[in-house]
Amino acid sequence: MSLAMILAQAGGGDEGPGCPPAPNDYGTFHDAFDFIVHKRESVSGGICIGGPGELWDLTQTHLAVSFVAIAAAILISVPIGLWLGHIGKGEFFAVSVSNVGRAVPSLALLAFFVAFLGLGFVNIAVVLMLLAIPPLLTNTYVGVRQVDPETVDAARGIGMTESQIVRKVEMPLALPTMFGGLRLSAVSVVATATIAPLGNVNTLGLPIITPQNYGLAGEIGAAIVVALITLAVGLAISAVERAVTPKGLKVAERRTTSRRFSLPTLRRMET
Amino acid sequence: MIDVLAQVQIRERTGKGCVAENGFCPDWIADNLHKYWSPLLEHVWLTVISVAIGLVIAFVLALICHRQRWLTGVVGGFTGALYTVPSVAAFLLLLPVTGRGNNTAIIALTAYTLQILFVNIMGGLRNVPADAVDAARGMGMTDNQILRRVELPLALPEILAGLRIAFTTTVGLATLAFFAGAGGLGENIYSSAAGTGGRFFKSNVVVAGGLAILLAATFDLIVLTFQRFALPWRRAAAR
Cβ separation of B88 and A106 shorter than 8 Å? Predict the structure, then answer.
């Protein structure tokens, strides 16, 4: 009996029930799926990793930090975008925010925050929120600016107040574009939450960041789960978007599907 | 002589203290700047090659969809789905298939540029005024001539806008390419956390992150400059 096996058995005795050693005869993807559905002993030994239990815990943290970040980003950027769009000013600001936001790599932003402000849930949520704001703000602004001025004039003509115009005319008409921004934001937040374990927030990126414990199977298994969750979030937001789009817009929307990728912004930028 | 030695010692001591305390250390940065040269070049290489391949593929796809409109939804849905896959996951999921290294990173980064470029090329072609195309046809141009002499020049601003977004996005995503075993500036940022027991080294984060942002801005400026020279009629119209 080799030393490694003795050590593995000794480790197995310590940590209690139901934690077999990692299978060694599986192909890479088979091994990764096995990591998702069965727990196993870690690469360095001594602790149990993987399985639905741990992955569910990691998923909950992942979704929690993402949700907090997206909610905060909505609360900040939607009012500003609606207001700037309504008064028709700050185009340079709204477009610059999205340009700057794209140019700052998420890893650099996270590293900067962790290095200067420290670890923890709140800091990571703030990093993710900063990533989520640019697409939301820009798309809200562009969505409102795209509303036909005659429609706004008509609303004013029948006696609506400015806040009524924003709430009852401009916002519903801007919703599809706003949701395009929300989907971009949410997908990038959920994707970037993968590197949150660098800030001590144990999201689904934990197996990816610590391969010395989780091995290649853990890295790829976690990558599969992250990819599925991101796709699900994207699809869920698309479904909500369809549900809340005003009926009148659905007909017009079909002709310009590309609008959801904030094309109007892109054209506007270089004029 | 003694003064100089003393100064050197003091400088070393403060430098070490600064590094040990994980401060922001200009001295350390000045001494170590050369270490960023090769990651920066790797980063440039990953970005340029991925955007170039992405542009070729997106262009071909867009031209096919321009002729066969019904394909637009299919291709757009496919590139959109690719775009949704988180970059870290994409790098890792490709590992068993294409191995560690630049190839894996380039495949994933190229996949991300497709959506941006395809959408903008299609948008540019669709926004060409129908009158311009009709006039060209009235002059006896063939479909290919219309594409080359009328539609593509008029779509160029939007195509270049897409190119700018593709460049800045790819520079950002390439900071995560070290997960695929390719280097780049991200490796500097990431490895500094590993070296200090989970803490990021501030000086390193600022330099590596700053270089990545500068790189994105540089690519943006290059495309903008190209746009000024490639579209002289727009400058004329602006006057």
Answer: no
